[in-house]
């Protein structure tokens, strides 16, 4: 496999959905090609950084407003079966 | 959609909440609100819209909790509600503002070139504070068209399959793949410009048979192939 062919199968490779034969060929290529190996590694790190929600804190005022609204909505629900009673 | 490791605990809270325990419901909200807010923010890219989406979604959870049969995890259920709320809001916005600018998103053969190729320095979350990391991530998202952003978020952040993403957005699986590739390459470029270690930078084409400039042409061909086969595998 050549560098030029990598992008054709990049999505499937990153998603772990590549046909095993092609996957093996691609891995062989990556072992000998730093630029391609780095691009693949960068993409994996990019995805995992976006997946991590740690940096997305709710704004404090919204959080307070949200919890008030939910509590209010909870109280106004139609009568539910309540096993705690 | 991916199951989370926290599912057993969620299941217990769901049962208690369904039995009327508000404290258990609050636990569920606390466990998921940050993830849902991040999702809504990524999808809408508007602070007010993101807050509306999260609030409307959790209100819907209160309303429909008694009907939730726990055939899927709570995380999956509430994510689906949030995605639907966000897409509904974006559709309404689009109707008011006219068609989005990325209508030609799938036709253009203009793929972002892997230009800055380097290993990342450290784990960005260790090297930078949260605000700085978030700024870089948000800037990256701004480089994408709405269509690319939605595909990337649904597929890569939320773990929907290609088929589920296509169905949620009303586009073909081929278009999902093209937009996803474009989004991944653009975000990789942006983040590597910020987090890349100059010492490991690859000045392509390298000193062997690697002409990365031709990747673009081939990627464009691959994309047009995929775009024309909407029945592609998920």
Provide key terms for this protein:
heterodimer; A: 85 residues; mainly alpha; 69% helix; disordered C terminus; B: 234 residues; Rna Polymerase Sigma Factor, Chain: A; Arc Repressor Mutant, subunit A; 2 domains; 10 helices; 65% helix; 0% strand; globular
What's the rounded overall pLDDT mean of chain A?
A: 89
Largest sheet of chain B: none
**Class from secondary-structure proportions of chain A:** mainly alpha
Largest interface: A-B, 51 and 66 residues
Gap between N and C termini of chain A: 68 Å
Quick one: how many beta strands of chain B?
A: 0
Q: Major beta sheet of chain A, specifics? A: none
What would your notes on this structure say?
The complex is a heterodimer of chains A (85) and B (234). By secondary structure, chain A is mainly α. Chain A has helices spanning 3-14, 20-32, 34-51, 60-75. Chain A has one domain (3-75). In chain A, helix 2 (20-32) crosses helix 3. Helix content of chain B is 65%, strand content 0%. In chain B, helix 6 crosses helix 9 and helix 9 (173-195) packs antiparallel against helix 10 (213-227). The interface between A and B is large, with 51 and 66 residues.
Summarize the structure.
Chain A is built from four helices and no strands.
List the helices and strands and how they pair.
The complex is a heterodimer of chains A (85) and B (234).
Chain A: H1 3-14, H2 20-32, H3 34-51, H4 60-75
Chain B: H1 7-18, H2 22-44, H3 47-64, H4 74-97, H5 124-127, H6 130-142, H7 146-157, H8 162-169, H9 173-195, H10 213-227
